Known about the structure:
It is a single chain. This protein has one domain. About 70% of the residues lie in helices and about 0% in strands. It contains 5 helices and no strands. Helix 2 packs antiparallel against helix 3 (about 55-85) and helix 3 runs antiparallel to helix 4. It is a multi-pass membrane protein.
Amino acid sequence: MSKKNGLEVGFERTLFASRWLMAPMYLGLVLALLMVVVIFFRELMYYVPQMFTMEMDKGILAVLSLIDLTLAANLLGIVIFSGYENFVSKLDIDENAERPEWMGTVDFAGLKMKLIASIVAISAIHLLKRFMEIGKPVGELFDGTELMWLVIIHLVFIVSGVMMALMDYINAKVKAASKY
């Protein structure tokens, strides 16, 4: 085993410390999460006064919008916590704290799968909202071409998720086979 020179050791320490350059980005994502929370409550306060007079279709669209925002917030939370723990530093949280089971266990492959699953769910909700608007005046003209592209994009997200899962499956099989 060769001994490393001082320049190489210093370079590697600098590279390792550079992971902290990502920390401000995670703080920015916390602010983005706050933005989603504010938008959620703004939407909720818009719809609550209408709940006794709202038509069923509009009520379902309102609920889907709130679910959409909640899924986006969940996605941000997963990226913030998993990304920070995977790429910057482990969270030092009190043992008695209510730590979700997945925290500290989601590796990069798991993070990718949760990310694509959330994107597919958000895309599906958006697509469902557009399907429910067919034939109704919604303030802007409903375009069949737009719907076609929404379906195509949604299918691309689904195929991407399946391909990512397949790659992770193959990678796990190769790692397991190389142990023997």
